Amino acid sequence: MPKTPINPPVKCDLCPRLVEFRARYEKSKPDWFNGAVPAFGDKNARLLIAGLAPGLQGANRTGRPFTGDWAGGLLFPTLLKFGFAKGEYKADPDDGLELVDALINNSVKCVPPQNKPIALEINTCRPFLKAQFEELTDLKVVICLGKISHDTTLTTLGLKKSLYKFGHNTHHDVGCGITLIDSYHCSRYNTSTKRLTKEMFEDVFRDAKKKIEAKI
Predict the structure, then answer these.
(1) Ranges of H-type helices in 9-83
(2) Superfamily of domain 16-214
(3) Nearest residue to 32 via CA among 10, 6, 2, 60
(4) pLDDT digits (tens, 9 = 90+) for 125-157
(5) Distances (CA, A) of 202 to 5, 25, 82, 146, 196
(6) Is the pTM of this model over 0.90?
């Protein structure tokens, strides 16, 4: 059988609901990316940031994960602070920003209505995420942004969700020298309600940095 690619075609047609939703914006916003958003970052990364799905005003518009929306305004400065990125984040895919030893990938590649993919869509997109894990042979740490990402990552790795409870900045040894670290998603809702603060988010990446350096 052909090897599953890391990224689906930009105009992926595997999930009818997502294709229909995307089509609305292909008509009303033809200058937007409006497609399956590819992973972004270092192909030999030791850190994987596992998100949920492209944001409507962010990655679905710009074509780069977390670029142009509220979440990216917290994520990318944090990556820069801890040396996982270089350059300057200007909320534009052409800003020249590069990730260093880090890669961002989403559980679902196409924008879902109300930012909520359904189980069928997550399952359909899982082979692409699995292929990503297989390519990251030096992977040491996975940061899961939100519980859905946490659950999806565990399923992708063939692990029982009941054995790994989600909790902000909870560390899980998932075997093969990989540590999974949970974080509340850096969404506007979580940050505006103070469920997630800048300091809490930075603690996650500080710990990830220490884990990676300890495993050198």
Answers:
(1) 16-28, 59-62, 70-81
(2) Uracil-DNA glycosylase-like domain (3.40.470.10)
(3) 60
(4) 999 999 999 999 999 999 999 999 999 999 999
(5) 32, 34, 9, 15, 10
(6) yes
